[in-house]
């Protein structure tokens, strides 16, 4: 991180109308809440609570948690008192967006007691994606891995985990880049450093901090299987959210559903699923979670127990845009700020696999940053660009 004599970059907020965070609250969230209410037959009480949250978060100020909230002490520690009464878009974007999803869970009755306790408001969307015919096609592409060299297989699976539902393995198995190949949007490629780091010492534990469920979690699981089955990792921890979060973030139920999807697929995908089932039952692969994974704070504020747990990993793979924001800090860093500097706080060697879907950017060379900036600010949020960045 910057030295004490060097001021940190400004925290990203949504105070400027038309900015990306402002549009999330005023354009994306209203659509999201409508999808939530359309997805499940919530009753009048839940619907009124959701409408109140929409009115508050688009035109009001940040209000308190519901009376008797079981996580009130945690949110007090995470700075709720400092944000109460602010306009939602004036609070740090990372904090406000996380608090929005916490309040949404309360609005739909997820915390209970009552009939909606524990019912994932995003469940219908997740289930529809995981059960789609497109997933069958993507899993079938695993049958072609055997035609590639070991190095090509490594490359294919790492890039599939990077791009998630923007690309499947088929783009790599066609024999080379094709028109519209998403690899052309790869702004930083430390893939070789990732594999070299895994070869540099005896096999150790992999920690993969998951992002989205469904089509994006499947290639994460396939990558974990690759590392376990080839001996590059002796064991693995898959970190998921303790509760529904950011629409599609993976929970334990989502991880189990994805593993079952693989297990019941034909061909190579089914074999991956069988190995994963055996790894889960033997303890070689463990699903882990922690309350801090739904905290509104960057990873440099993680509590000691989670820090100690991650510190024993030989490599941590941090997936997705939200986790990247938490990893480097959700600030207006110059895009050339070294990735290693911003992740020096993380307790293990770390690899970030991230598709850019928010304003923060780091670790780019000056020429790339200048070329992209000349096109306007949209390159940071379009999802058409990605990075593989490693601090070994």
**pLDDT < 50 runs, ≥5 residues:** 1-6, 167-183
Q: Which sequence of SSEs, written as H and E, runs from N to C?
A: HHHHHHHHHEHEHEHHEHEHHEHE
Helix content: 40-55%
Cα shape: globular
CATH superfamily of the largest domain: Uncharacterised protein PF01937, DUF89, domain 3
Give me the secondary-structure category. alpha/beta
User: In CATH's first tier, which class of the largest domain applies?
Assistant: Alpha Beta
Query: What amount of the residues lies in strands?
Result: 5-15%
Whole-number total of structural domains: 2
Strand order of the biggest β-sheet: 1-7-6-5-2-3-4
The assigned CATH architecture of the largest domain is 3-Layer(aba) Sandwich
Work out the helix count.
17
> What gap, in angstroms, lies between the N and C termini?
16 Å
Q: What is the CATH fold-level name of the largest domain?
A: Rossmann fold
Q: Calculate the mean pLDDT score and round it.
A: 93
Largest sheet: 7 strands, mixed
Number of strands: 7
Nearest-angstrom radius of gyration?
A: 21 Å
Family: Belongs to the damage-control phosphatase family. Sugar phosphate phosphatase III subfamily.
Domain Damage-control phosphatase ARMT1-like metal-binding: 25-368
GO molecular function: metal ion binding; methyltransferase activity; phosphatase activity
Catalytic activity: beta-D-fructose 1-phosphate + H2O = D-fructose + phosphate; beta-D-fructose 6-phosphate = dihydroxyacetone + D-glyceraldehyde 3-phosphate
């Amino acid at each position: 991180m910057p030295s004490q004599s060097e001021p940190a970059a400004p925290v990203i907020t949504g105070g400027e109308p038309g900015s990306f965070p402002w549009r999330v609250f005023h354009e994306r969230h209203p659509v999201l809440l409508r999808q939530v209410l359309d997805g499940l037959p919530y009753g009048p009480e839940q619907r009124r609570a959701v409408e109140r949250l929409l009115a508050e978060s688009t035109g009001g100020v940040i209000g308190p948690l519901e009376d008797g909230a079981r996580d009130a002490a945690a949110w007090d520690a995470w700075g709720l008192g400092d944000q109460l009464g602010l306009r939602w878009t004036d609070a740090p974007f990372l904090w406000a967006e996380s608090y929005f999803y916490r309040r949404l869970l309360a609005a739909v009755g997820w915390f209970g007691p009552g009939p909606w306790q524990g019912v994932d408001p995003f469940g219908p969307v997740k289930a529809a994606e995981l059960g789609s015919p497109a997933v069958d096609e993507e899993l079938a592409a695993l049958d072609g891995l055997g035609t590639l060299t070991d190095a090509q297989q490594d490359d294919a699976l790492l890039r599939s985990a990077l791009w998630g539902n923007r690309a499947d393995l088929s783009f790599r198995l066609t024999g080379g880049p094709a028109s519209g190949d998403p690899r052309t949007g790869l702004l930083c490629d430390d893939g070789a450093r990732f594999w070299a780091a895994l070869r540099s010492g005896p096999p150790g534990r992999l920690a993969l901090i998951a992002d989205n469920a469904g089509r994006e979690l499947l290639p994460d699981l396939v990558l974990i299987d690759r590392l376990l089955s080839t001996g590059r990792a002796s064991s693995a921890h898959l970190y998921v959210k303790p509760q529904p979060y950011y629409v599609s973030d993976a929970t334990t139920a989502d991880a189990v559903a994805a593993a079952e999807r693989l297990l019941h697929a034909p061909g190579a995908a089914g074999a991956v699923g069988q190995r994963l089932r055996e790894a889960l039952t033997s303890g070689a692969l463990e699903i882990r979670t922690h309350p801090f994974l739904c905290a509104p704070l960057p990873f440099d504020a993680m509590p000691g127990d989670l820090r100690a747990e991650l510190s024993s990993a030989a490599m941590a793979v941090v997936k997705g845009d939200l986790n990247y924001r938490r990893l480097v800090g959700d600030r207006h860093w110059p895009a050339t700020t070294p990735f290693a500097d911003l992740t020096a706080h993380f307790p293990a060697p770390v690899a970030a696999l991230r598709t850019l879907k928010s304003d923060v950017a780091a670790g780019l060379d000056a020429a790339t940053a200048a070329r992209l900036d000349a096109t306007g600010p949209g390159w940071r949020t379009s999802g058409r660009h990605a990075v593989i960045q490693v601090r070994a």
